[in-house]
Amino acid sequence: MQKLITVTTHTNKGGNNFHEEQYPPVNELLEDGYKVVNVYPITTAATGSYMFALVIVLEKN
């Protein structure tokens, strides 16, 4: 079984500080035994410097 998840992230948090973000729905699926099989970054020219989406393909046997 596969699941497709889209995560939208914003990387312009100010300054050069490292910022870690967790996504509970993804974490729950990983805990349920799903594995990440592919990640596709989606950017646009207008927002690619600080905003982008990740399309995550998860699979469970």
Distance between termini? 6 Å
Strand segment tally: 3
Structural class: mainly beta
Biggest sheet: strands, sense, closure? 3 strands, antiparallel
Regarding quaternary structure, what we see is single chain
- Please state the overall shape, judged from the principal axes of the Cα atoms: flat
Q: Calculate Rg over CA atoms.
A: 13 Å
Query: What pattern of helices and strands is seen along the backbone?
Result: EHEE
| Spatial strand order of the main sheet | 1-3-2
What's the helical proportion of residues?
Answer: 10-25%
Query: Which segments are poorly predicted (pLDDT under 50) over 5 or more consecutive residues?
Result: none
Indicate the mean pLDDT. Answer: 80
Our estimate of the beta-strand percent is: 35-45%
The total count of helices amounts to: 1
Written account of the structure:
With 61 residues, the protein is mainly beta. It contains one helix and three strands, in the order βαββ. The protein has one helix at 24-31; strands at residues 2-10, 35-42, 51-59. It has a three-stranded antiparallel beta sheet with strand order 1-3-2. The radius of gyration is 13 Å and the shape is flat. The mean pLDDT is 80. It comes from Flavobacterium panici. Keywords: Membrane, Transmembrane, Transmembrane helix. This is DUF4177 domain-containing protein. The chain crosses the membrane at residues 39-58.
What is this structure's SSE topology?
Elements: E1 2-10, H1 24-31, E2 35-42, E3 51-59
Antiparallel strand pairs: 1-3, 2-3
Keywords: Membrane, Transmembrane, Transmembrane helix
Protein name: DUF4177 domain-containing protein
